Amino acid sequence: MTHAISPSVRLQVARLLDATPRSLAARIVRAINVATILFGVAGVVLISDSVYQTLEPLLIDVPLLMFAVEYLVRIWVAPETHTTHGSAARVRWRWITSACGLVDGLAVVCLPVAWLLGIDAVQADMFCILWIFKLARYSHGLAVLGRVIRLEAEPLLGVLFVFVMTLLCAAVLIYLLEGRAQPDTLGTVPKALWWTIVTLTTTGYGDVTPVTAGGRMLAGLVMMCGIVVFALWAGILSTGFSQEMRRRAFLKTWDLVAQVPLFHNLGATVISEIAQRLRPCEVAEDTVVLHKGDAGDCMYFIVSGEITIEAEGQTIRLHDGNFFGELSLITGARRSATAVATRTTQLLLLDIADFREMAARHPELTTSIHEEAKRRVRVGYPHRDTTPP
Amino acid sequence: MTHAISPSVRLQVARLLDATPRSLAARIVRAINVATILFGVAGVVLISDSVYQTLEPLLIDVPLLMFAVEYLVRIWVAPETHTTHGSAARVRWRWITSACGLVDGLAVVCLPVAWLLGIDAVQADMFCILWIFKLARYSHGLAVLGRVIRLEAEPLLGVLFVFVMTLLCAAVLIYLLEGRAQPDTLGTVPKALWWTIVTLTTTGYGDVTPVTAGGRMLAGLVMMCGIVVFALWAGILSTGFSQEMRRRAFLKTWDLVAQVPLFHNLGATVISEIAQRLRPCEVAEDTVVLHKGDAGDCMYFIVSGEITIEAEGQTIRLHDGNFFGELSLITGARRSATAVATRTTQLLLLDIADFREMAARHPELTTSIHEEAKRRVRVGYPHRDTTPP
Amino acid sequence: MTHAISPSVRLQVARLLDATPRSLAARIVRAINVATILFGVAGVVLISDSVYQTLEPLLIDVPLLMFAVEYLVRIWVAPETHTTHGSAARVRWRWITSACGLVDGLAVVCLPVAWLLGIDAVQADMFCILWIFKLARYSHGLAVLGRVIRLEAEPLLGVLFVFVMTLLCAAVLIYLLEGRAQPDTLGTVPKALWWTIVTLTTTGYGDVTPVTAGGRMLAGLVMMCGIVVFALWAGILSTGFSQEMRRRAFLKTWDLVAQVPLFHNLGATVISEIAQRLRPCEVAEDTVVLHKGDAGDCMYFIVSGEITIEAEGQTIRLHDGNFFGELSLITGARRSATAVATRTTQLLLLDIADFREMAARHPELTTSIHEEAKRRVRVGYPHRDTTPP
Amino acid sequence: MTHAISPSVRLQVARLLDATPRSLAARIVRAINVATILFGVAGVVLISDSVYQTLEPLLIDVPLLMFAVEYLVRIWVAPETHTTHGSAARVRWRWITSACGLVDGLAVVCLPVAWLLGIDAVQADMFCILWIFKLARYSHGLAVLGRVIRLEAEPLLGVLFVFVMTLLCAAVLIYLLEGRAQPDTLGTVPKALWWTIVTLTTTGYGDVTPVTAGGRMLAGLVMMCGIVVFALWAGILSTGFSQEMRRRAFLKTWDLVAQVPLFHNLGATVISEIAQRLRPCEVAEDTVVLHKGDAGDCMYFIVSGEITIEAEGQTIRLHDGNFFGELSLITGARRSATAVATRTTQLLLLDIADFREMAARHPELTTSIHEEAKRRVRVGYPHRDTTPP
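YS: structure for the whole thing
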């Protein structure tokens, strides 16, 4: 691991460990990593059962060893994945203290620390459930959820306050109403809190139920309040979540739109509008994108990759920046050819409903598509590209 | 079943089996099909009870036979319903491997296969519950739901990940907190998972409840997390579902708008906007669409069919492309005539609120309606069509 | 009840029975009607308890008698409230067969019919719970809900189909998995359906719970499916409900906007937009609408009624079509006067956030308000109207 | 407390008690106040347990004394915080009868009144749970919730009516179906109401469950109705809540936008649009706003405070009205400098997705930002302000 050879090797390794891999090798590394985490978590779940405790070295120690190696490798390659200027040591320290670095670090040290603290072996193993957080690296959803909770902190706290207020008032009231009837289960306010939260969340275990008329009326009210509180919470979170997902999709599409020459001729307003309606989709090699004879409900723009159109014995190849499938949207006819991706291809999909709305509001879009199609036929392309479907 | 006669007969049969039938015969065929499925499913439910097991030949074998015949007929008529080019055999194979074909095929082979595998007769009959999927052919909702789940796969999986993470962490924690107090029900993590999922979904059977203070605090937290997770799930699905239904409605309306000549004079922007506000509705023969003397809260455009206006002894017939009911929207007066559909009629309904907004934003729409009304009176129509209500 | 006197008396009575009363007498009649219904429904609830069964003549028979009288009176006045042309008898028949008429009729005949059928007295009284539907006349919410369910019937049925499909498949599966372990509670599919619906709705009584590992996994899945199904249902209904309420509000505001002269000078587009932002509110006599010294967060337009402005010893009266409170929105200062309603007054409220957006998008609105204010001062008004707050 | 000295001292004290404090002393006073409330509420919860009843003087009497002092002080300073004209006594009376005043008053008198009424000491202490309402002063969420419930009263009542109707009808039906099978728990309608509300809210304690086939079918229906009713309630509340929060954010941003000179050059329409997209955020002293080398996903406008830009050895100070971070949005490059807040700074954040949409729709915004940046370099600033990141 001398400095003379490490940078290029380090870069190779860094690319293998990327969370959104492009090469086959990186995909395999990711698959192994995810499989190890799942195997490890399954081990944690099983280890608590005395039947499986003899398997501990396999179930817990093997994943732990792999995570330790992964952690050291990730520290080593940190300078390649983080563009912060400064010495390699400073960059590494920044990665160690980042969210990803802390999770990876905790995953490694949790068990040794538990042993050092003298915790019973089976209980110590339980700390390895933290391994599941390592999967967060591959989940966009979790990142979005975190951002939403941060952005909507104020209303969420407001509703939490309403929740706690209802909880405490209801607990005191049920204690006053039922405390003497059921001293064992509702005889103090802390005991009453258990009944209150079980009722307020409409879980309703049934281990404690009010028996007096007053207590039952209060219970009815508490159930209704619970629904209201959680409705507010749900409303805030789901609105924020869907806005944030839309924002992410817009940014992703915007970057792809810039790679399609057709859109360069359109005004910025049209581009901004179309970027909100295009849907990115990646198709694997040999996927049939369009079937000849199907009804046409969308058109496609190629961002990168290659699409082969098979129509009446003729084979045409389309490349980055071309589009296809627009004929069916304009004429309403069925697909006149089959389109197959000849390698992994990044497409932008424009739905028929959106196409019609866009075409009605911005006639220049349709004109632009027509002209581009004509120009292609006139100029000619390598491999005689044109757009029959 | 010679080739000389089959194509025309085959086309007739294909039309009888259409999922959106137009003729009376096709409606009857569909009704029989749906009734058989419901009868068969009811049979499956009852057959598990020893009282009804003697009825098995009637409850199970009769529907099974009918489905087998239906399956063979559908294979035979496949070339008429699918426009894929190629030999009849290839088209048939494509239908057999389509979603509909697989469901129909499974519905037929499930029971014989279960018998071959030597499964006990009553248990084998249970596989016939798959028959209910045959109804999916007639349900738009299911198709939309499937599409939404496909489109929103990424956020749904993100939330699923949060759910599984919460589930596992909570199960391990409750095992640590309550494992010793309740070894029978929470003594291992897999056992604890049962309590955790019952609590996280706020189902709360009450067969396992925490008894320690720490366990109860954790339980309160788990209930709150559960609500949050499902709120996100609910938000994503219901937003996607309503967008998808709106998209379907827009496409349907768009096709109908093209059949009303009045709209040809308007600009594409107005058409696109009005298509989002018109609501398609089909009325059966002899339905009273407007009652004389009612308050007017909408106007109608006729896509196809016939409407008879009965006003002061005079009877006027309106046909495809005409409109009626606009007077009340403009003047605010009550309906001055009764309108009755004389045969099955496809209408487009424009609500008063939408009419006012459209009229304010696009005065040409109102002008167009006025001019059309005048032109009709001037030119005259067969049966003296005009638009009094 | 001769024909010579009835029409004018009939009209008076009809106005007394109006659901949205304007006169004090009509309000009293409505209050008595609502009180009788609530008293009667409370009677139905209590009568099942043997303690109260001696009170039956008071609790049940008195309201029943009143409803019978009300029913006959409503039949008599039907020609005044319904504008359908035709003989009085035909109009009355139409009212009797309308939704309101059927509910009122059922409320009267339910008990006698139950007696005739020889049903036990206490059980017969229970049918009087139908009286609660008489309240529907006064509830807009119910009418809106009915309309939403009719409009969104297709997606609601789609989701219902998914629900029934999940229900049946889950019931068959739990029967296969747990039928032998718990033959008493899950030994047939109909029995299993009870557990399935209790779990699918996350109610979770806990009277039946799965005990095998397979059954518990299925239960977890069923709980999650239940949430998804109801999320869709909830999403469809709440979206439709809020759209429908907004539509109603728009129609109500639109009618009121037409009564404010200021808006006549503005273009139709601005009116349509402002009608969506104005919020109608009715204030009772002697209500203080604005407090001197308060922060100004909205302005008001008077549709009908009278507002008195008290500023520095001077008292100014504003009438229909005037507006007030705009100064604070423009300057950001606190209210400079107190405004009191001197009789029941219908106002249109424009919120500060909406005012700013409207002012930014349509400068002619602010100009119009300024000019109107100046013109008033120049021309003068009876009682020296002007708009200091 | 002579009139000669009180006004200035009174103003100082009033500022210390402000709910949105600016000075450090005021923050400390608020923290003490909140801590006392939380301590007092915790005391109320614990006091019901016999173990802690000896601590009553500490847990209850100390907070009570502090609240009494606070109440008197707040009455004294009322003329400083309320701008109503009139004598000090009148202003004080108005504060005492305001929502805040009533809550503070109740918090003080609840316990003495309970003692006077001769209520048992422990039960009397329970009334102190009202202290939690004192926290409402600091919670925006609660104020918003109250406003939403007032604004949406009509649809909420409509749904409440549907809920009560379903509840009563279901209770009567279950009484008819199960009353004879389970006379102890469902033998009268009031008893049946308990089962109905527990089922309608899907709480499902399981203490009463139907046993007949008819009762179980009804139960399934009631569970489904419950979900529908609460879905409507949830939908109304969460829509209203999010609208109201957006409205608040718009007003807050609008006031801040007016303090940024850049926006003065833009048209009112652009300002109104941008005010809806800017997000206010306050950063504490020494917060790192931008890290050199990070990806750029937003730009900032400074409303008040100071930001120090550290780039290549050079240190630049930015003040009120400046902006920074726009370069990364335009070029897509990573941050070229680190930005640190040198004192508490109020910023407006414009997200990259919003920046792109705004730039596409209103090219004058981008032009304006470019010109401002150029002008700054040309004219020069104290401390050589410019905007490298």
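YS: worth flagging: The longest helix of chain C spans residues 213-257.
IM: good catch. Also The CA atoms of residues 16 and 26 of chain C lie 4 Å apart.
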